[in-house]
Design brief:
By secondary structure, this protein is α+β, with helices and mostly antiparallel strands. Helices cover about 35% and strands about 15% of the residues. It has a 5-stranded antiparallel sheet with strand order 1-2-3-5-4. A hairpin with a 7-residue loop joins strand 1 and strand 2 (about 20-25). Residues about 150-165 have low confidence and may be disordered. The structure holds ligand N15.
């Protein structure tokens, strides 16, 4: 493959994701997201091994709710990643523009199910910490979750998050305390995500990072009255300070609130 095989369109996410363009493969007309990484930037930041490891991992992940890395190629100056195009773009924007900035039970439980399915698949492949938060979720044209790992993108701090260096709202207690962490961090983040879908903001959001950290470590959570009991039950089983106590992803997928509402 080479750049001449593609007809480039506009930048996606208005430059938020680094240099990602919508593009069409000339012969088939297939629409993709074409991400370009400058080799000089990668070398200057000593990220060669990391990028190659990410490409290695991502190219082996094949799941309907994980954004697929279709192929990649490079020229003298850039590495080009041919990624699946998600027709409805950033989930985050849909969340913010929904009435009261939150999703209804049906939509929330469907997305939580799909994210749990994607994470369960990743964990079985010994891949953890996909940096789960609304900014890393895209929606396909059929309104299905596409989990992307935008760790590589140069996120300009988006105005939507108060803290300029990206949100701390999704950090689990073990990461706030700088302890080693395992796959259970994703279970915690799924709990935060479920709360944010239903309420419109993450549970521990505070005026300062320090206050947020304190609330995370105390699991100091309040549920607005409109949050259904079934969802509270699920979230409270994910947001456990002791990581081993958190409900498993397969149990999330079989939880009554998910089954009855998705
Ligand atoms: C090193 C490597 C293997 C990591 C691979 N993963 C990434 O590069 C993560 N990444 C995915 C993207 C990305 C960004 C946006 C989109 C979109 C998309 N569709 C849209 C529709 C409307 C508005 C914006 C849209 N963005 N589809 N697929 C995308 C993929 C950017 N970075």
């Amino acid at each position: 493959w080479s750049l001449s095989d593609f007809e480039l369109g506009t930048r996606l996410g208005r430059g938020k994701f680094g240099r990602v363009f919508i593009a069409r493969e000339r012969k088939t007309g297939y629409v993709v997201a074409l991400k370009t990484l400058l080799k000089k930037e990668i070398v200057d930041n000593h990220m060669e091994r990391q990028v190659l490891r990410e490409i290695e991992i991502q190219s082996h992940l094949k799941h309907t709710n994980i954004l697929e890395l279709l192929t990649w190629f490079h020229d003298d100056f850039r590495i080009y990643l041919v990624l699946e195009y998600a027709g409805k773009g950033e989930l985050y924007r849909h969340l913010r523009k929904s009435p009261k900035g939150r999703f209804n039970e049906h939509r929330s439980s469907k997305y939580v199910y799909q994210v749990a399915s994607a994470l369960d698949y990743c964990h079985r492949k010994k891949v953890i910490h996909r940096d789960l938060k609304p900014e890393n979720l895209l929606l396909s044209i059929t309104d299905d979750i596409k989990l992307g790992d935008f760790g590589w993108s140069v996120h300009t701090p988006s105005s939507s998050r108060k803290t300029m260096c990206g949100t701390v709202d999704y950090l689990p207690p073990e990461m706030v305390q700088g302890k080693i962490y395992g796959t259970h961090v994703d279970n915690w983040c799924l709990g935060i995500l479920c709360y944010e879908f239903l309420v419109g903001k993450p549970p521990f959001e505070s005026r300062s990072n320090e206050e947020t950290y304190a609330r995370i470590e105390n699991v100091d959570i309040n549920y607005p009255c409109h949050v259904p009991a079934g969802a509270i039950d699920l979230i409270s089983k994910l947001l456990r300070k002791t990581s081993e106590e958190r409900i498993t992803l397969s149990d999330v997928m079989e939880h009554p609130w998910i089954i009855h509402n998705k």
